[in-house]
Amino acid sequence: MIAWQKAKQLVLNLYTALKLCKDFSFRDQIQKASVSIMNNIAEGFERRTNKEFKNFLFIAKGSCGEVRSMLYLAWQLQYVDKEDFEKNMFLSLEISKLLSGFIKTL
In CATH, what number is assigned to the domain containing residue 47? Predict the structure, then answer.
């Protein structure tokens, strides 16, 4: 699934971009939120019912919002540079749009 693949890339990007960040609670939270996106997609898929899958996709979409919120802070706190901010913001928005489209089809 494309949204899961892009979510995995977002996780890898954020782990790389924040590996030197000393604000451990911030780093852990944004990383957990990004992992939550891909894990909720996977868990919903495994449930094998459209109703449950849709619910997990909504949760994943919420985690996308959390990642974007934290990305704004990461940039303003200078934990990430503008390039990392823009790249990951775009990717998170793309994932959210893919999830919205998939939710509508279910």
Answer: 1.20.1440.60
Structure-block tokens of residue 103: 């939710």
Tokens of 77: 């706190």
Contact in structure between 70 and 29 (CB atoms under 8 Å): yes
| Sign of the C-alpha dihedral computed for residues 15, 21, 24 and 30 taken in this order | negative
Tens digit of pLDDT for each residue in 70-104? 999 999 999 999 999 999 999 999 999 999 999 99
Q: E strand or H helix at 51, and its extent?
A: helix 50-76
For residue 45, the number of C-alpha atoms closer than 13 Å in the C-beta half-sphere is 13
Number of domains the chain is built from:
1
Question: pLDDT tens across 2-15, in order?
Answer: 999 999 999 999 99
Task: Give the containing element (helix H, strand E) for 50.
Answer: helix 50-76
Phi, psi at residue 70, to the nearest 5°? -70, -30
- Asked if 4 and 63 count as a contact pair (C-beta separation under 8 A), the reply is no
Q: Which two tokens stand for residue 35?
A: 């992992």
